[in-house]
Amino acid sequence: MKTPSQPRAIYYIVAIQIWEYFSFYGMRALLILYLTHQLGFDDNHAISLFSAYASLVYVTPILGGWLADRLLGNRTAVIAGALLMTLGHVVLGIDTNSTFSLYLALAIIICGYGLFKSNISCLLGELYDENDHRRDGGFSLLYAAGNIGSIARPNRLRPGCSVVWMACWLCPCGWRHVYRFVDFLKRASSFPVHA
């Protein structure tokens, strides 16, 4: 039995999906530890901030989907979302003891997720005609990519939050986003444009 080949652009979308989940679940694994051990937040404040962050990451894609449908298109929304997530991680890694930069970085990351999360699946869907038999396989690859990214990050991070935690994890995570984003932009011209 021969497996049908997928459009070339799917592999870039899948790679970016891996890094997005890698980033999100890594942040979930360490954010409270960073807030309490590095910034000295009390447990209630740290849990409240984490809860707000996690909630907004799941609510903002509603607005991101609306913006993509009405103004931006899926490709532009995904690119803008990836860029914002990258910028947010870089800002988070720059000043490790500033609560202002923490809140600013989290706000930027949340806006990035809002644009990215709801539109990456739509961008993938645009690669196929409506009755293309490869479509299910493409969405299965995207789903698998999310699982790979979510499993890989928390297993590699250890709960020992140190003074150099931000420099050792968030800055490299931001730079990985930059690399994947630049690679994505180089190949984005092969992706379909929002009609």
Automatic annotation (TrEMBL):
GO biological process: oligopeptide transport; protein transport
Gene3D superfamilies named among the record's database cross-references: MFS general substrate transporter like domains
Chain segments annotated as transmembrane: 12-35, 47-68, 75-94, 100-116
Top-level taxon: Bacteria
Family matches, as Pfam families: PTR2 (PF00854)
Principal location class: membrane
Keyword Transferase: no
Keywords: Cell membrane, Membrane, Peptide transport, Protein transport, Transmembrane, Transmembrane helix, Transport
Lipid bilayer topology: Multi-pass membrane protein
MF terms in GO: peptide transmembrane transporter activity
Locations listed in the record: Cell membrane; Membrane
GO terms for cellular component: plasma membrane
InterPro entries noted in UniProt: Dipep/tripep_permease, MFS_trans_sf, MFS_Transporters, POT_fam, PTR2_symporter_CS
PROSITE patterns tied to this protein: PTR2_1, PTR2_2
Family membership: Belongs to the major facilitator superfamily. Proton-dependent oligopeptide transporter (POT/PTR) (TC 2.A.17) family.
Annotated protein name in UniProt: Putative oligopeptide transporter
Species of the source: Escherichia coli
